[in-house]
Amino acid sequence: MGSTGPNSVSRPDRLGLVGQVLPGRTGPAGRGKRPIGGVMKLSTRSRYGVRLMAFLALRRGEGPVLLREIAESERISEKYLSQIVIPLRSVGLLRSVRGAHGGYELGKEPSEVSVREIVEVLEGGLHLTDGGREASRSRTITGEVVEQLWVEVSSNIARTLDKLSLEEVAKRVGDRRQNPVMYNI
User: Fold this and answer.
1) CB count, 10 Å around CB of 154?
2) CB within 8 Å of 82: residues ≥ 6 apart
3) Mean pLDDT by 10 residues, the chain (185 residues)
4) Are 106 and 56 spatial neighbours (Cβ–Cβ below 8 Å)?
5) Residue 10, Cβ neighbours under 10 Å: how many?
6) What is the pTM of this model?
7) If residue 145 lies in a helix (H) or strand (E), which one and from where to where?
């Protein structure tokens, strides 16, 4: 069925193990445990980019905001944010203002910006795979069918993110700030 080494996981869907934890490689040292059916990750660049844009949407109308202020408030490296703003600015999602009262502000109304736009700018697209551009000698019918599955999943992700405006994200953040969830230990 497959390898049986210390880092192998066998068919969690069939064995009813989704959500359980098995030994596996995690982190740079490769020690620890990982959940079966774990996390498919969106890049930090996209996650932080959406946070940056939501922060600016909440501050809409207050003038430009310094990157340092965003970094401190969102607990993100200012240096990292300075790399994220470049592509967002180049497509007009962000606007930079120079001078003593300079900083960044949205280039469009929050209602006109979808989360999909932000992620596509920062990721270069929303495709989970390379679209089946592997060498033709290694392509199989199974490979083609599975590739189509990933295309469908990518399409569903794109549709979901397209429905979600930056205005809606900012509203959710604002609502959460007004009604924070209390955790009691």
Assistant:
1) 16
2) 67
3) 42 42 48 58 92 97 95 96 97 94 95 96 83 65 88 91 96 88 64
4) yes
5) 13
6) 0.72
7) helix 141-163
